[in-house]
Every structure is written in C-alpha cells, then in structure tokens.
Amino acid sequence: MFKYGIDHLTVDKVIAIAEGTLKAEITSEAKDKVNVCRGKVDKMANSDAAIYGINTGFGPLCDVQITPEETSKLQENLLITHAVGVGNPINKKLSKIMMICKVHALCQGFSGVRLEMIERIVYFIENDLLPVVPEQGSVGASGDLAPLSHLFLPLLGEGEFWVGDSIESAKKVLKDNGLEPLILQAKEGLGLINGTQFILAHAILGLKKMEYLLDLADVAGAMTLEGYSGNVSPFKEELHKIRPFEGNLKVAERMRMLLKDSQNVEDTSFPRVQDPYSIRCMPQVHGASRNAYNHLNEMAEIEMNSVTDNPIVLSETEAISGGNFHGQPLAMVLDYASIAVAELGNISDRRSYLLLEGKYGLPRLLTTAGGLNSGFMIPQYTTAALVTENKSLCFPPSADSVPTSLGQEDHVSMGSISGRKFNQILGNLDKILAIEFMYAAQAMDFRRPNKFSSIIEENFKLIRNKVAKLEEDRVLKDDINALVVMVKNQEFKVA
Q1: CA spacing 20 to 30 A to 60: which of 102, 166, 238, 337?
Q2: What span, in angstroms and rounded, lies between the C-alpha atoms of 491 and 486?
Q3: Where is this chain's protein located in or outside the cell (predicted)?
Q4: Phi-psi domain of 232 (left: phi exceeds 0; alpha: psi -120 through 50; beta: other)
Q5: What is the pTM assigned to this prediction?
Q6: How far is CA 488 from the centre of its chain?
Q7: What is the third-level CATH fold of 2-194?
Q8: pLDDT one-digit tens code per residue, 69-98
Q9: Catalytic site residues?
Q10: Which CATH number applies to 202-489?
Q11: Is the C-alpha dihedral spanning 94, 330, 383, 349 positive or negative?
Q12: Smallest Cα–Cα separation from 431: which of 322, 341, 320?
C-alpha cells in the first residue's frame, strides 16, 4: 500500500498506481498534515493583511484585495478562466498520472486545500473518472495552468470526462456517480492549478517507455552486429573501465551478454580490423543516452515528491509566493533526454544502412535477386525520414520564453512542449527500431547455419513468427507495422 504524502514516489510506483496494481491511500498522518495546513489558510483568508492568492487577485492583479465573502467565487473563476487549452486530448493515462502526482503533492501539507477535495480526486483515480485535458496551452510556469484547470474543472461540475472512448459532460458523470460538485474555498484553486504535473506526467510516461527502448536498442544493435558479422572486441570490460561512464559500462556489459556463446561472432570468414562507428561505438552512443535517462529519472523523482504550487503555506502567518511552480528543472532535462532518444534513432538508421551495402557476405539490399527486386532498399528511406523528423523535434523549448500575464510572468519554461516532444520522439524510435529488426533478421538468415546467443535466437524467432524472410519483393508495410506493434507492446526479450 502506498501512502500519499508520506511514502517516496517513483516512476514505477506511479505507473503501478495508475494501472491498479499498487493501492494508494491517504493515511491519518497525511490527513492530519492536510487539516493543520487548511486551518492556517482559513485564518489567513480572514486576515486584513494581503496574502497572495488567498485574499488577493492573481498575477498582475495581486494588488487587488478580495473580501472573505468573495473568496469562493475567486477560486472558481480561477479554474474557469484558465481552462483555455486547445488541441487534441492527451492520453487518458496521462490524466490519471497527473492526478496521482497532484494528490501526492497536496498531501504533504503545504498547499492549504481541504481534505474533502483531495479525497474527491482520489475517488476519480480509483474509479477511472478521467478528465479530458487538451494537449496545448501550457507555458510551463505558474504551473501547467491550462491543462491542470481542465483536469480539475470536473470537481466543480464543469468540463468533461472520458466514458470509455466517448466524452461526456462532467455534470452528467458526477450525477451518474451520485456526486455533488464541490464549492472551492480559499487557496484551493491555486493549489489545484499551480504545479508541474502536466510536464511531470509526460516525463514519467516517457521515462517508462525510454527504459525499455534503451534495452531494446542494445538488442537491435546486437542483432545487426550478428548480421554484419561484426567485431566484439570493442565491448571488452577492460576497455570501458578506463573511461567509466555509467551508461557506457552498462551497454558494454549488455553487449557481452547479448553476444555470449554465439557461434557467429567466432566465425572468422570475414575478418577486418574495425567496424564503422554505428557498430563499434554502441557503448559510447547508447551509453550517453542511458546517462541522459538517469539524469531525467533523478530529476523527475525529485519533482514527483515535491510541492510545486503557490503560495506555499509555512505557518499561520506566512505563505510564501515563490517559484516552485516553474518548470525549468524538468524542461531542460526533458530536452536533453529528447536528444538522447533521437540519437538512438540516428545510430539505428546507420546500422540499417550498413546492412544494405553488400559487404562481408551479405547481398546488396539484402536480396539475392536484385535488379528485378529492390529488396530492402526503401524501408531505410522511412528511417531516414523519421530520423530527420526527430532532429527537427530536438529544438529545445526550454531555450525559449515568451512573457505572459502583463509581464508578471516574464520568464516561462515551455516545459510542457518539451514533455510532449519527448514522447513524440519516443514514438518515432519505435518505428526506427522495428525496421532495424526487420533488416537484422534478414541479414542473420545469411549467416546460417551459425547459431547465435540464446536471447538473440529467441528474438529472431519472435520476428520470424510475424515476418517471413524476404525472398522476392512484396508489400512490406504490414511487416513493418507488425514489428512496430511488437515494439510498442514490449514483446521482445531484452534481458
């Protein structure tokens, strides 16, 4: 059982809560922290002193004080006016992850919201009542204001929910579940929509996918090396111990595991001094991407256990209007991770290209009937297009800033765009690696009767169960799509 606001949250725990394999609860300890902080806010709301967002307006209107009687309307207006997102709805799972992360933050007792409101969000999570959230509109500072507003409008009976694959009004869904809309109190609107949970959810979902694709890229590279009849000496442990980057050491170790006991790599029929970089430098390139993954994972874990709304309530008289909502800490590492994922695609495309050159016992374009047949000439065009698309997506949104809120918010992170692009690049990598697997399996067929390592043989069999060896030209679209589905469903054995 995971305890909101008390236990340490990780990527795996968030995913497990979202998938229902890990139960989560608000314990009495967390409830006490929430209630104590709420009491502090109630006192501030009735104070004569101006305290931002509790008894004042927002942004450039922070100098306008609000009466206690206007407090509820102020918070309701905040959500309604900030729900201006556009574009397609985000993945339903992202909505759920956002709510999980928000509950964990609110339960730490610095946000000043009522327990009743947090419990309603938990009810949404546990009953798969997932709000519809547009993908565009957040600049990633003052929190992810627009997406979080859409996420929590249904608390008020506004906005929309997913019902299966259909969209229905929140008012109807609440009624169907026997729930009354909530009336927000002082500070609660701010507690809901100030925060980085949109950026964070994209980081979490992307990290989980990237973890698998890092391992899968090693497998694809090892299969290409087998098909290319490459040299295994660049993976020796002694070599990497004298340049001991964590990622490099890990990839070199994995390559040794993936190629262990292979008859093919011991075959000396095609000797050469060294292989091209896309074969020889996999530990350095894949390893650098692993280092970026480690960095993003570290930063995301800090963020998911942090309080990122505003103001932060520290005592009965002190609510600090700071900048914990600013998305820059995640935005920059998401941009770094995007480059890292794109590079996995770049080097994969180069390995696929190598297999087409007709060297070291392989026929040109991986077909023995070239001329009449084009063989595997054209799928590499697709990987080239995907690689370039990924390069274009690597422009760092975190390097940009457009002032908002009459200059009050004069530097923003644009981290929401960083998070979305990170996941787009990961989606393109699925397809690039799928095509490399198709090429590698074809090349490996030309190395028979040599046997490969047990894990490579197992993956070869998985491919051949879906995609037959190419003997003469056929429509390859279905073959590619079948392998893309295998990548997306994580069907390949990676360890």
Answers
A1: 102
A2: 5
A3: Cytoplasm
A4: alpha
A5: 0.96
A6: 14
A7: Fumarase C; Chain B, domain 1 (1.10.275)
A8: 788 888 999 999 999 999 999 999 999 999
A9: 52
A10: 1.20.200.10
A11: negative
A12: 341
